[in-house]
Amino acid sequence: MGNCFKTPNADDISLLRGSDSSESSDQPIGPPPPYQERQNRVPIYHPSPNVSRPANQLSEEEQIKIAKRLGLISHLPTGVYDGSSKKGKECAICMGEFTLGESLRFLPCMHTYHKDCIDDWLMRAFTCPSCMEPVDAALLSSYGT
Amino acid sequence: MNSPLSPIDFEDKRLKIKFKLEKRLQKELQALTKDPPTGVKVDAESIYRNLSEWIVDIDGAPESLYEGEKFKLMFKFGSRYPFDSPQVMFIGENIPLHPHVYSNGHICLSILTDDWSPALSVQSVCLSVVSMLSSCKEKKRPPDNSFYVKTCSKNPKKTRWWYHGK
Ligand SMILES: [Zn+2]
Ligand SMILES: [Zn+2]
């Protein structure tokens, strides 16, 4: 799974430059882009995993994404743990066991989490933490037609 | 006007999150002490004093290029763990000579940033690191090592890694 920084190779250079600039091919392509620092700010929204940004700094696209996501999350079934769950008794996010009366959320892939735990994650990434199944794709296939 | 979250609720939520985080780290530590994967060892006593920073001993796997070598991995957990990945890097005298490990201990491994999931754990990160080492064919530093080590932040999570093959 270890993927690493990619240094430009000959193929990339020819792709970037196109065929008409072969004369300048002796010029170095330059150093790889500088490693940018992620900014440390008050985490409010998480448009992507490991990305936190206050609401006023979200792009319009991210705002729409978050609004849509809140809507989608609210369509995922919830329930209360009654001790009868056959699908595991532990929340893979907090590693705590479900206790009677706790609110749970059921993902279309059949994985179950504490509602608080999974909602927090779904705002960052819309995938199941356990099986990496994209939750929206599953939603579309299970509710569509 | 009613604010959606009163200061008391907010404090309550914060404490709940902190409590859950500590419980999870304690569970992970228990599991790792009781049933550690081959080549992975934690000093539970030192960790119980400060749950937010762990040092894990990693042995190079037999029949790999790192057989007989010993490494130390440092884990730092922020308050948003497990939603945010931990900070993980090699520390100490022996930093493995590997195409995805920089000489300052930073590791280029996608599960530590972009491909992180809260269902992953210290144990699964250690296993990924061990398998990354085991699959190595040639001991060498990443091609951009000297540039990276000069320009990077102390925190490997602040690097925008460029993963290929994605
Ligand atoms: Zn949970
Ligand atoms: Zn799943």
Tell me what you see in this structure:
Chain B: One of its GO terms (molecular function) is ubiquitin conjugating enzyme activity. Chain B: Belongs to the ubiquitin-conjugating enzyme family. Chain B: It is an enzyme of class 2 (transferase). Chain B: Residues 20-166 form the UBC core domain. The complex is a heterodimer of chains A (145) and B (166). With 145 residues, chain A is an alpha+beta fold. Chain A contains four helices and five strands; from the N terminus they run H-E-E-H-E-E-E-H-H. The two termini of chain A are 37 Å apart. Mean pLDDT of chain A is 71; it is low at 5-29 and 36-43. Chain B has four helices and four strands. The chains are: A alpha+beta (145), B alpha+beta (166). The interface between A and B is large, with 35 and 48 residues. Residues 107, 109, 111, 128, 130-131, 133 of chain A line the site of one zinc ion. One zinc ion binds at residues 91, 93-94, 96, 113-114, 117 of chain A.
What about the largest sheet of chain A?
A: 3 strands, antiparallel
Strand content of chain B: 5-15%
- Low-confidence runs of at least 5 consecutive residues of chain A: 5-29, 36-43
| Sheet/helix structural class of chain B | alpha+beta
Number of separate strands of chain B: 4
What class, by secondary structure content of chain A?
alpha+beta
Rg estimate of chain A, integer Å: 22 Å
Entry summary:
The complex is a heterodimer of chains A (145) and B (166). Chain A has 145 residues and is α+β, with helices and mostly antiparallel strands.
